[in-house]
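[STRUCTURE TOKENS]
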Amino acid sequence: MKPADLLFPRPEGLYCPAGGFFIDPVRPVERALITHGHADHARAGHGAVLATRKTLAIMAVRYGDSFAGSRQEAVLGERLPINNVTVSFHPAGHVLGSAQIAVEAGGTRIVVSGDYKRASDPTCQPFEIVPCDVFVSEATFGLPIFRHPDAGREVARLLASQALFPERAHLVGAYALGKAQRIVRLIRQAGYDRPIHVHGAMEKLMAFYSSEGVSLGEIVPVRATDRARLKGEIILCPPGSLQDLWSRKFPDPVTAFASGWMQTRARARQRGVELPLIVSDHADWPDLCRTIRETGCSELWVTHGQEDALVHWAATQGIRARPLHLVGYGDDGEAEPVSGEQAA
């Protein structure tokens, strides 16, 4: 079977006609396979959803138990027949429960990466190489300038700043799913054992990670404390809360933002970030290139991000490549909307 017949883009997302399903569709469909729980990949309203147990649980935390008509758990590594194709889920190393999805039929295997990273993360399973004919990759940081430093060293910079400015609260902007928990766990690994305070929008997902065995230490909701007394403390919040009224009630706050985008100074300046922390849950340029080579693919499709640069690089390596120009996905899609009740 030709790869373009097995899987191709439609306005809803990547579609497999032989299996009758979409992968990470951006609008409600009858049958969806979901790579992970971020809002730009996992949406409510589908007729049936197939995903890992942890991703299904995350979707229920975020959208409520009735987020889909029906749900089915995909066990990592198990091959599952769906109509005329076989699918399997494999660790993606992006966030808790994240998976690549392999689609096979007629001797052809396509692996859809979803979002992924190769860097170490103590909160989720590491990325697994799945040999394939076609690798469908993201390219969020698909430019040679993006080379992410060690996340532990970035967290050490945060703790050094806290020690240097004990009279100032340290507000850390981080995406509510994955990034926030990873930052907390890295802080704990660095030996910090004081309570870490979090915005109300992060409470449920922090509790879920803890229930899945991720040791986060003492997490204290900010709404239950006097913010004026939080000098010298570390507070995590959604990135959008760094510049709203919620953040102005803290004592002389140091604003930090944990993101791969903090490698570009213009982004940090635009957001008014005093302490940029280059911590990404996506593969950087070297890891994108390394992963493509290690899959052994003869063809590369790029879903979203810096598509052109990665397509050009693949051509120099003798790999056929093309951009899919999928819309509705992107790093900013991980930011959570904050309700008035959560901000209170």
